[in-house]
Amino acid sequence: MEISARSCCLVVVLGLGCLPVIASAGGPGSRQADRLETTRRLNKLIDAEWDWRLREQPTFASYLGDRRHNDRWPDVSLQAINRRHAHRRAVLEQLKAIDRKVLAPGDRLNYDLFRRDYAVSVESHAHRWFLVPLTARDGIQDASSTADVIRFEQVEDFRQWLARLRSFGRYMDQTIALMTAGLKERRVHDREVMVRVPAQIARQIVEDPGKSLFYKPFRSFPESVSSADRKRLQSEASKAIAEVVVPAYRRLQKFFDNSYLPGCFPRAGVWQVPGGKDFYAFRCRRFTTTDLTSEQIHEIGQREVKRIRGEMQKVIQQTKFDGSFGEFLEFMRTDPRFYYKNAKDLLAAYREVSKRIDPHLVRLFRRLPRIPYGVEPIPMHLAPDTTTAYYRPPSADGTRAGTYFVNLYRPEVRPKYEIEALSLHEAVPGHHLQISLAMELENVPPFRRFGGYTAFIEGWGLYSESLGGELGLYKDPYSKFGQLTYEMWRAVRLVVDTGMHHDGWTRKQAMDFFADNTAKTLLDIENEVDRYIAWPGQALAYKIGELKIQELRRRAERKLGDKFDVREFHDVVLSRGAVTLDLLEEQVQQWLEGQRP
After folding, report:
1. Residue 586: helix, strand or coil by DSSP?
2. For the chain, N or C: smaller number of CB within 10 Å?
3. CB contact set of 429 (below 8 Å; sequence gap of 6+)
4. This prediction's pTM
5. 566 within 8 A of 364, measured Cβ to Cβ
6. 44 CB-near residues (< 8 Å, 6+ apart)
7. What is the pLDDT of residue 16?
């Protein structure tokens, strides 16, 4: 029987027909005691490190709904970054003193994943990518969005936000110091993408503090906040924004325009940074959780592009379209029948598709998450520079539902045929279902419930798109072509991400390859390629993860034949939350070995 100190309590009750355990040297009682003590030490370390992480990353704590650190920004000084690095190295040394072999299987999994997280962080430090603290997609220029995940329910919540406003100057100066060091070491992004940032900074520089994005919490108050408190809080917020926040952004604007942007690389690719090839190889391993090389990933991408292209040709034949593949892509991008004329109708379509999927999930899943999700527009100040959609998980305390954010900027370039695949990926059975189920796991440490691995999480999202037919979607060829476009999109990523960051492709080469193989609109293609430039290696995880899940499903179908139950397979895949791909394969294989032929 597995004994895990996290999953159960071993209680010896005297006087109720049970005899006390008498440990003899080397006997079963001794081994059991060793296991319990070792597990206790592991759990104590894991719990202490979770609290340490929330202290060191207060905005992450806010994101989870933990209010304890809502009055602080993270310390991003070089001194603090080096201190955290030393701390993680010390934790790895502590782990060496814990005998993994005596742990129960569930605790060994905690040990392995916890150790991997810290080892990856320590390895990452050597590449000094922390000297690139902002991109054209995210960074301190969007720090005001932190308020969107905070519950403002009492005066103390507003006071904590005020404390963040008053300390914002220090946060900004630390960020500028990192960027200055990055310039000296030639660890920067390319100028073609970073030209988006000045407009993002300018949005935060306002003459009227009441129009600042940081002022948003003070525009409405719960009834529990008195009129006098409201006026005082608004006055203090205006003062902090005018005297601290806006001047901080002016400093960033001056530094960015005069020094940073001119010092960025004239073209894309981390191959240009010191040790760039080694850095990118690390990013490939980190995000895919495999040992695949850049060359191998590039080749996989080319094979997948060829395979999916063949599937697309079959769908085109069904439409009776008279023209070339390229002409069909242009038709899909430009024909008015595929687009809504206004944002209201586009949002309604996203919501309708999501509601249409929900009732059919029971066909494929035995367990569904308890917490709901909503479909909301991406804030308009972010929409022009971001992707088609994204998902924000629920808060850890369950007071904020999951949110599927959709981009309504320029609806005339947001095609109808991508809505089904996108909703399957970002909402259900994709991110909302998988992440919410992981958060609801019992007897699992928080770093696993609220963390994860991109290859699993995004691989599951892409795999979910393939379930559309089983859920009653993709009934017309254009919608099916949309699904294939999304799958092709992720295959293209393998080619262009490795192409730019390892092989020296230009941004234009990447965009041309993208446009030649997908029906994505040119606006989406530009935003996507810029995302890959800003986030080296991350986009590789989607297709690599999806290929592994598909491979494991085919393995299960072959072995079990008519006894294969897709709901049971999905239960197995999701049973331990997000794990690395090697551990996922291990858990599916163990399940298969336990099945009767």
Report:
1. helix
2. N
3. 357, 361, 364, 365, 464, 467, 471
4. 0.91
5. yes
6. none
7. 29
